[in-house]
């Protein structure tokens, strides 16, 4: 029996919320340059631009299930500039072929108020909503942890740039 699951996770990062959001919303191709150990290759496949709604891209990633390189064909579903959120759906790839009927992930980038010392932080929140093909599908929390670890690497890169 298929199960619909929703899982979430979040971390605090140090870099500016707008800089971080810009990478995920408009420049996802930079992620493979920043995190080649997680995303060795990200390619634009179809649409008018990386950040056009309906744009299709191919993300090669190192699977958190065994460490081999797999791919995900994704569709950009929504960008909300005001809420700094981006939603993708996965259309094809090992995840869809083996484990899930549907898989959507959403990133939200939430700036926090600056503290007394002038330093601010940003909250990065990932959520996944998926429909599993069976109870043997991997816990989608694995993918949240993978995405959050990538967010940490991007934070380090952007904070030092």
TrEMBL record:
Lineage, highest ranks first: Eukaryota, Viridiplantae, Streptophyta, Embryophyta, Tracheophyta
Membrane-spanning parts: none
Organism annotation: Opuntia streptacantha (Prickly pear cactus)
Gene Ontology biological process: defense response
Limits of the Bet v I/Major latex protein domain: 2-161
Superkingdom, natural source: Eukaryota
Protein name: Bet v I/Major latex protein domain-containing protein
InterPro entries: Bet_v_I/MLP, MLP-like_ligand-binding, START-like_dom_sf
PANTHER family tied to this protein: MLP-LIKE PROTEIN 423
Extent of the signal sequence: none
């Amino acid at each position: 029996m298929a199960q619909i699951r929703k899982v979430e996770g979040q971390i605090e990062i140090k870099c500016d919320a707008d800089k971080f959001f810009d990478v995920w919303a408009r420049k996802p191709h930079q992620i493979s340059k920043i995190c080649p150990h997680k995303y060795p290759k990200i390619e634009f496949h179809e649409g008018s631009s990386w950040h056009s709604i309906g744009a299709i891209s191919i993300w090669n990633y190192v699977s958190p299930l065994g460490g081999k390189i797999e791919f995900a064909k994704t569709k950009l579903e929504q960008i909300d500039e005001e809420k700094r959120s981006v939603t993708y759906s996965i259309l094809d790839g090992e995840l869809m072929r083996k484990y899930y009927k549907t898989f959507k992930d959403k990133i939200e980038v939430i700036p926090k108020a600056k503290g007394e010392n002038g330093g601010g932080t940003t909250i990065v929140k990932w959520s996944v909503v998926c429909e599993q093909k069976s109870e043997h599908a991997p816990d989608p929390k694995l993918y949240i942890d993978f995405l959050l670890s990538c967010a940490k690497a991007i934070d380090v890169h952007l904070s030092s740039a």
